[in-house]
Amino acid sequence: MLLTTHYMIMQLLPLRNTPFFVLKFSPLLKFFLITYFLTYLISTTMKSFETFRFSTGLLLFTALTMSFMACQKDDLVLPNATSTASIELRTSPPSVPAILEVPEGYEVSFHTYATGVQVYKCTETSPGVFAWVFKEPIAGLYANENYNGETGIHYAGPTWESNSGSKVVGFRLQGATVDPDAIPWLLLGVVSSQGPGPLAGTSFIQRVNTAGGKAPTTGANASTLGQEVSIDYTAEYFFYKPE
């Protein structure tokens, strides 16, 4: 058996400098091969086959033991990793003013982070009175607060559309000013929703944690009538479905 093992290993020796040899063999196997050849050289020098046979057997036993322990370690770590990932994926409702709370019987079905602009148009609201009137949002929807992993878009309606094609159109139910320098937090009902995707079947939407996006307080006059301005904003949107 030892002679057969030695012969097989010797066949691999010419491959030691090839990319295949470097990429395909694990560190444990590389350790075994290197130690094997050192043992072989020492035993050859000492002209003692018994020393070589004993050393090789001990080396094989050690390698098998280390492999078994490594497998046990993997078995212990993987369930914990899966459990942690599941916990991190759970989304709880945000803390909001009472008037923005979603009725009982609904749960968060989707949560996304938005960054984009609120578009305003200079409008004559009454004879000789001009103001920047909200026209539409234009924003991207993302998976996390660093705006990585685009999940959809937000546009006039107001409409939220996922990358999978699901879509929901909402209408304002309640609003609350939490930050005087930002657009208000909102509770919205749903006009329509369609799928397939995470937004299908949505019943309520919350806009929270807003920053920026407020309409300009100056510059609306007869000379700017019809002009549009885009104000940067960020927000989070929570979507709810029946439990």
What does this structure look like?
The chain is α+β, with helices and mostly antiparallel strands. It is built from four helices and eight strands, in the order ααααββββββββ. Strands 1-2-3-4-5-6-7-8 form an eight-stranded antiparallel beta barrel. Helix 3 runs antiparallel to helix 4. The chain is globular and about 100 Å long. The two termini are 65 Å apart. The N terminus is likely disordered.
How do the strands and helices of this protein lay out in sequence?
Blueprint (H helix, E strand, L loop, with lengths): L1 H11 L6 H6 L2 H20 L2 H41 L16 E21 L2 E14 L7 E6 L3 E4 L4 E10 L8 E10 L9 E9 L15 E15 L1
Antiparallel strand pairs: 1-2, 1-8, 2-3, 3-4, 4-5, 5-6, 6-7, 7-8
The counted number of beta strands is 8
**Helix segment tally:** 4
Round the mean pLDDT to the nearest integer and report it: 78
- Uncertain spans: 1-10, 12-25, 70-90
Overall 3D shape: globular
Lateral arrangement of strands in the main beta sheet: 1-2-3-4-5-6-7-8
Percent range for β-strand residues: 35-45%
Range of helix content: 25-40%
Structural class: alpha+beta
As a whole number of angstroms, the C-alpha radius of gyration is: 33 Å
Name the helix and strand elements from N-terminus to C-terminus, one letter apiece.
HHHHEEEEEEEE
- What composes the largest sheet? 8 strands, antiparallel, barrel
What is the end-to-end distance?
Answer: 65 Å
Q: How many structural domains are formed by the residues?
A: 2
